[in-house]
Amino acid sequence: MSFLKHRVRFSRHAAALMMVLGCGTGCTRGELEHKADAYNQAIAESNSRQILLNAVRASQRAPMSFVGFGDVAAAPTFSGSAGGTFNFDPFGLTTYNLNPTVNVNGGFTSFTMNNLNYAAFAQEMQRPLPPNIVQYFDQLKFPKELVKLIFVQEYTLPLQKRQRIAAEAAARCRARANQRDADICDAMERDRDRFDKAGCQDFPETHATMTLLNVGRDLCAMVTFQTFVRQLRLLEIELPFKPRTTQAILYYLGDLIAAQNYSTHPFLPEVLIEKDNRRLTVPLFEVRRAIPAPAGTAVAVTYGGESFFIPTPVFGANEEARSLQVLDLVSQVITAATSKDALPKTSTVTFVQAR
Asked: Are strands 306-310 and 209-213 parallel, antiparallel or unpaired?
């Protein structure tokens, strides 16, 4: 009976060990799924921080730098052992000491980071975007004015046409035939008030052709361009324009950061959006600085000893800033503009151990 009793105890321990070892495959799969989600989130967050960091550099007229996140190598491993001491006498097992060990490594052993600061990538970043990219993002239901502000570098048109557009828009605002017209005209009037309070002036045009530049660092210039964009929208007019390069988009984001943090007359750039059949202005790309960045920010980076951060928008509210939507748009553009051929060759890839 004693021998059977010990056999029963040994069988129970062996079964327990088999249960521990048997979870190996399941534990490894769970580990893989967890790490896949973690890496997905980490790369997405790193991408947003890289865009913000380069925009901060651009705001201070410092050189940009780019890193590409490459493939992730997964090598799940599993091992188990059952070491122990077993003592027998002629009648069977007397004592035993069972020491099971299980080692599971169900994760990624390495990932690649590509240095993109070289000629081919720079050439792709400096290539003008196709004009139809505005139509593409309009179809994705991005706010119309946001798309124009990001992609349009400048409008060039005859002075007489510019004057005619301004006159027709003024007449439309006097009539205010519907809520749409009233909302757009109200936004232009508020901008004009800011324009006047900042001491901005309208300079008379002396040439037959004029160019309206889209810059965000200076309130006077930004209001002038936005007013023209809203006049076109009010009159439902589409004009040809010179599109930005991908690099110029980052410089524009730098202008918006400078407007809020370094301008002689700091201001928060706004954009006209549609919500619940109304048109209202909300922050376009809100970036603040502090030492250190407060907790709970949407995106934060450190540069020059200071923290720059995007506050978490009040999602769903009328005043919801479009900062994260701007990051999304710029991320898509960078991905589309830099083709696979612009990535480094295998010989230049550095493997970094993942932890």
From this structure: unpaired
**Which residues contact residue 116 at a Cβ distance below 8 angstroms, ignoring those fewer than 6 apart?**
66, 67, 68, 338, 342, 343, 344
Arithmetic mean of pLDDT, 97-118: 58
| % pLDDT > 70, the chain | 71
Averaged pLDDT, 42-71: 86
Contact 309, 272 (CB under 8 A): no
pTM: 0.77
Q: Which residue has the tokens 């349009």?
A: 152
Instruction: Give Cα 206 distance to the centre of its chain.
Output: 42
* Ranges assigned E (strand) in the chain: 67-74, 77-89, 92-105, 108-115, 152-158, 209-213, 242-243, 270-275, 278-283, 288-290, 299-303, 306-310, 350-353
Phi and psi angles of residue 158, each rounded to the nearest 5 degrees, phi first: -60, 145
**Tokens 């139509």 -> residue:** 135
CA distance 196 to 203: 13
- pLDDT value of position 92: 56
Is residue 95 within 8 Å of 75, Cβ to Cβ? no
- H/E/C letters for each residue in 62-90? CCCCCEEEEEEEECCEEEEEEEEEEEEEC
Q: Rounded to an integer, what distance in angstroms lies between the CA atom of residue 197 and that of residue 306?
A: 31
Given a cut of 80, whether residue 215 has pLDDT beyond it is: yes
**Any residues with CB less than 8 A from the CB of 292 and at least 6 apart, and which?**
307
Distance CA 96, CA 222 (A): 82
Collapse the DSSP code of 262 into the 3-class scheme (helix H, G, I; strand E, B; otherwise coil) and give the result.
coil
Residue 85: pLDDT band with limits 50, 70, 90: low
Q: How far apart are CA 352 and CA 109, in angstroms?
A: 9
